[in-house]
Write the structure tokens for this entry.
Amino acid sequence: MDIDSAHPSPLLPGSLDVMHHPFTSMDMQFTDEYSLLIAQSHVAGFWVLADVEEIDVDWQAWTSVIPDRLELANITTLRIHIQGTHNFWHTIFGPMVQLKELAVSLDKASLAPTARPPVVILRSVLSQEPLLCPALHTLNIEWPNAIKSDDLCVSDLTDMLVTRTRLGCPIHTLAVRAIAVIVDIGGQRVWGFGPMLAPLAALVQVFSSVSRLDEHVCTFEPSRIWSVEGAEEYWELDQCSRPHYSVP
């Protein structure tokens, strides 16, 4: 499927019976080059991969149809990727009243004039009143690439955790993957932001941080329902900015 705002059409066809299935898990990616939406349960699922044909696609217009076409109230697990130009996640999260586990991959800082730090977008969505996703108790946050300390925006994450606790919907379990890479004459050194993350650990019951390149807390992988002939054609999205779906 190709996306071209000059000739808009629904991203999700409403005539498919599978669209009305009570899916429990979703993966969502919306970038400058493509969109990827996967909804699945233990017995059924569908995926939509669409390439972008123009530079400034209006994802807010495209994603606005998702709550009307899919039953989001049954989603309990969600994996997403946030870019600094995204302005539509409130619409997606709104109906997810049963969402319990959220894993977020945060894009690198954008130079677009309307961009915000991805952490700020996440805080805005999870802190707005009345609270969205009241059942949410587990949050995994990952920066796939090495970042600077300023990119952490710890104060924004702290504000979000405090707000949700104050309103009676606290995050109980928090995992963060944030690494910094320093290149020196001797090669490459990798280190984490442990001390800077201490304020977050104090606000949840269970906290963990990852500072190894080979460890992740936001893993995109297909469920067993996709173990069918030809599945690798759909799941092997082997590009540096995409989730990598590896089929055994």
About this structure: The two ends are 26 Å apart (CA to CA).
